[in-house]
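Let us work through a complete example step by step.
Step 1: write down the sequence.
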Amino acid sequence: MKIGAIQKTSLIEFPGSICCIVFTQGCNFRCSYCHNPELVLPEKFGNIYSEQEFFFFLEKRKKYLESVCIPGGEPTIKYDIIAFIEKIKELGFKVKIDTNGSNPEIIEKILKENLIDYISMDLKGPLEKYKIITGVEIDTKKILKSVELIKNSDIEYEFRTTVVKKQISFDDFEKIGRIIEGSKMYYLQKFIPSKLVNENFMKETTYSDEEFDVIKEIMKKYVLECKVR
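Step 2: predict the structure and record it as tokens.
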């Protein structure tokens, strides 16, 4: 497992649980607004932690942590992700995984084997805009399959969208709503320019607070709860 970074403690990443965050390195998407270029772009890859280092850290933190969150990059593209999660579970920790939903086969397997306790999926936008937003060719049928697997699972979950104003219109949120209709939780994530995969996106903006209120009302027709973060 290629581990790009470790955050020792988080009180917000896994709702209701004290967790650490282990960032996997490598991603099959190239979203311009992504703020983790050092986890996505091979030419920017930094230090790689070994599994041995991570599990040594985890053993020492058993008294203080309840769970482990695994974002990326994209963790489901790692051939050894299932074995990695199994090791974490064997130590008694809950596991949350963040995914772009491009590998429903892996999602289905980890759900069937009860390997995770929470899953968060980024829905990039309406399906017809996926190539523009992700920068790659993507089989959107896989995105839909992942959505259905997650919606029909027995674990806690959330869908979320990072909102760049020029990429997603108000009408697009109606389309997103129909994709995830009936879901428990949907987060609108404000785009904040920082270090980005595409530095040209530093000049892009998100919607105003008042506009986000309008978007929330749109989404509340489709999901049980919609929040802005």
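Step 3: interpret the result. The first strand starts at residue 3 and ends at 14.
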